Amino acid sequence: MRETMFTGFTDATVDFLWGIRFNNERLWFEAHKETYLSELYRPMKDLGAEIYEFLSERRPDDPMVCRVSRIYRDARRLHGRGPYKDHLWFCVERPSEDWTTRPTFWFELGPDYWGYGMGCWMARPMDMAKLRSRIVRDPKPMEKLTKALRGQTEFTLGGDTYKRPKAGAPSELLAPWFQMKTISITHEEKLTEELFSRDVVDRIKTGYAFLLPYYDYFLTLPSDPEPETLK
Question: Where are the strands (E) in 78-200, listed by range?
Fold first, then answer.
């Protein structure tokens, strides 16, 4: 059981994120490390744990885990940037070496924005080919999901797209899925008051409950037959 419950981020959380954006160096971070831990990392961990419990209760047979990101950038990929991220996130997904190819729930907080959603950030070309083949074989499930996505205002479909969209979509409604190289169903906006209380917990839970059918649909794609084997 969780020892602590998420009660909201604070003004100090936002101040730290702005601070690290404009003072991205070790001396500043070390001087403010306790603020990072108490106002950003631990609340993020508490929020992630609570959302993990929520999702686990709805998918008790799905071995999901929750991970909070490191604030330290990969030293091999700084590309002229400072050693620290100016944002933090948690993910709830199945444990896997190739977790970025699997559907993943995420929440992210930056100094001037927040967002959450579900997606396959680095979907493999074969899995996207399987998605297109599944839609052609049986379009009705994705028609239902697509209509539900169009009928709400919280999330939008995004992700990387092909320069030349793939042909063969069964209908105009389903054509956007044939353009996608990766999948991202997300919500992002400027900082809102609900982040500073437990109100954001209910909003995330409601959003993830809506996204669970999409998670289920994409999760099983790797087990589909490869398109060239389809009759």
Answer: 88-93, 104-109, 114-120, 156-158, 183-189
In Å, how far from its chain's centre is CA 1? 24
**CB of 181 within 8 A of CB of 123?**
yes
- Report the predicted TM-score, pTM, of the whole model to 2 decimal places: 0.91
Q: Note the pLDDT tens digit of each residue in 173-184.
A: 999 999 999 999
Phi, psi of 68 (to 5 degrees): -100, 135
Question: What gap in Å lies between CA 114 and CA 94, rounded to an integer?
Answer: 23
Q: Which of 73, 84, 75, 78 is nearest to 30 (CA)?
A: 84
Neighbour tally for 95: CB within 10 Å:
10
The gap from C-alpha 110 to its chain's centroid, in whole angstroms, comes to: 14
Inter-residue contact 139 to 131 (CB < 8 Å): no
